[in-house]
Amino acid sequence: MDNARIADTFDHIADLLEFTAANPFRVRAYRNGARTVRDLGEPAADILADENRKLTDIDGIGKDLAGKIAALVAGDRVPLLDELTAKVPESALAMMRIPGVGPKKAAALFKELGIATLDELRAACEAGRVRGLKGFGAKTEQTILAGLSLAEQADVRMLWAEADVEAQRVLAHLRGYPGVRELEMAGSYRRGRETVGDLDVLAVADDVDALMDHFGKLDDLDTVIGRGDTKMSVRLGSGVQIDLRVVPEESFGAALQYFTGSKDHNVAVRSLAKKEGLKINEYGVYRGDEYVAGRTEKDVYATLGLPLFPPEIREARREFDWAAAGELPKLIEADDIVGDLHMHTHATDGRASIEEMAAAAKKRGLRFIAITDHSKRVSMANGLDAARALAQWKEIDEINARADDGFLILKGIECDILEKGGMDLPDDVLAEADWVVASVHYGQNQPREQITERILGALENPHVSAIAHPTGRIVNRRKPYEVDLEAVFAAAKKHHKFLELNANPHRLDLDDVACAAAKDRGIPIVINTDAHSTEGLGVLRNGILQARRAGLTKQDVANARGWTQMKKLLGK
DNA sequence: GCCGTTTTCGGCCCGACTGTTTTCAGTCG
């Protein structure tokens, strides 16, 4: 079993334990364990197989969790999981996804009324049976009915790029109220997570009530979930929840730090503060009752001797180790990228011409691009055969010859790795290209060994420059194709090839953990848009956010260098 | 369930808001 599945299992155990009213700290230990395994950066099986290392050396993994990981890796059953599964039906857990229903209420519904599915819960609410339960009332019943549809569309999180549209709209609306002195989005949106659940807005305002009234006039507002002295929550027609918090000016930095999270990052910060005899909450840093800091985030971190962490790395992974060593990486910026090496034109499934793509890229400040249309195997997209590819490259030569501004268009191709192995175009054709990205489009259901073999074969081909999407990952889709990523890393390193971080918000292949692992192994990443139109070039920022979350610097990203440098890396 | 320069027990981050209570538990972030 791989790390992701082990982590899912631990999270599932935590859900079940919560439902059975287990010790909350035991629940947290499983959640911590899940996160730790998910972020490991190498297969837990490798650590187990290494007699010089122990799983228990990892922070947060004790004897018990190490034993369960070993069992899962070996494919054995975990007795605790079987025991809990026998007690709690899967469908009952779904009740905890209803806003306002947590483990206690869900368990009460299950135990007292025998409700085990969302359908049964709806019926019970409509029959007025729920309000009779201790701790429940008519209002709770209404809340449940209203929240059922949300629970049924399990785990709908927006892509960051979609959340960004809403976020900008909300910020613009709030800025329309003149009494706003500070305004900032916090939460997972600010951390640049690939998906965002809800939006958190922080504000400092002259008149809190007036700002909240103004907030209530937001377009597309569906319901006001709650409104207090400092916090107001609303839900939009699109289902997005937005929380507005208004804080005093001297608390803005503390609140921004607090509500940006992540939760785990904050727990770690608070623990550090406690050791220093300080207390941190959303209002500031306190020594006893004395306010020490809170105006800016920088002030808050400084009281603990910590640097101002970029939001993208506040995940309680390695940022505190980096800070302690004084080695906080200077994360890559969008402006550092000087070339984009994966895009399509109307020769295949793109919508613009070579020159239109080049002009758009130039406008965005790039110095070079590679045109990488599909190869012939992708017949649906009218992929290029040898003759058409060579003709396109001739055209590119002519465009480059006419150009007088130093902008360079590389002759490229996204060449398919065939189902039976090998490339879709002959070597003598690929040899004519400046840049070849190899890609698995077909036979994605093959066994792991076979897909890995195909990719390794491509990496051995002297004309291949990069693997386009090394894991076939698509955000929000559960299963990418299965590949031995460690073997791919090793081959990429050996043959001096690049791995692509596909910046399309639906793909973001590699994920941040894989991206960090590639960095650790010294494999250069290229961040490409895979654009199919001139607007498509704009998705680059999604890739940048992903790279930043992985802790990548300018030095780790190959297309932050000029093409001459990249050619050297390829050994050309 | 994990952890330890107060170390094998007793802690484990902290506060707002809601609804159901009559002083607070549950939920959320």
3D architecture notes:
With 572 residues, this protein is of the alpha/beta class. It folds into 4 domains: 3-155, 5' to 3' exonuclease, C-terminal subdomain (DNA polymerase, domain 1), CATH 1.10.150.20; 159-246, Beta Polymerase, domain 2 (2-Layer Sandwich); 254-324, 2-Layer Sandwich (Beta Polymerase, domain 3); 334-569, Metal-dependent hydrolases (TIM Barrel). Helix content is 42%, strand content 14%. It contains 24 helices and 17 strands. The protein has a 7-stranded parallel sheet. It is globular and about 75 Å long. The mean pLDDT is 91. The structure holds one DNA strand of 29 nucleotides.
Work out the strand percent. Answer: 5-15%
- Give the CATH level 1 class of the largest domain: Alpha Beta
| CATH fold descriptor of the largest domain | TIM Barrel
User: What structural class should be given to the helix and strand makeup?
Assistant: alpha/beta
Overall CATH architecture of the largest domain: Alpha-Beta Barrel
The figure for the number of domains is 4
Largest sheet properties:
7 strands, parallel
Quick gist of this model?
This protein is of the alpha/beta class and 572 residues long. It contains 24 helices and 17 strands.
Write the topology of this structure.
Elements: H1 3-19, H2 24-38, H3 44-49, H4 63-73, H5 79-87, H6 90-93, H7 103-113, H8 118-126, H9 138-152, E1 158-159, H10 160-175, E2 180-185, H11 187-190, E3 195-196, E4 199-205, H12 208-215, E5 221-227, E6 231-236, E7 241-246, H13 252-260, H14 263-275, E8 279-281, E9 284-287, E10 290-293, H15 297-303, H16 319-324, E11 339-340, H17 354-363, E12 368-374, H18 386-402, E13 408-416, H19 427-430, E14 435-439, H20 448-460, E15 466-467, H21 485-494, E16 498-502, H22 512-520, E17 525-528, H23 540-549, H24 563-570
Parallel strand pairs: 4-7, 11-12, 12-13, 13-14, 14-15, 15-16, 16-17
Antiparallel strand pairs: 1-3, 2-4, 5-6, 6-7, 8-9, 9-10
Helix pairs in contact: 1-2, 1-5, 8-9, 13-15, 20-21
This protein binds one DNA strand of 29 nucleotides through residues 23-30, 32-33, 59-65, 99-105, 134-137, 139-140, 143, 187, 198, 200, 226-231, 233, 243, 245, 258-259, 261, 263, 266-271, 273-274, 279-283.
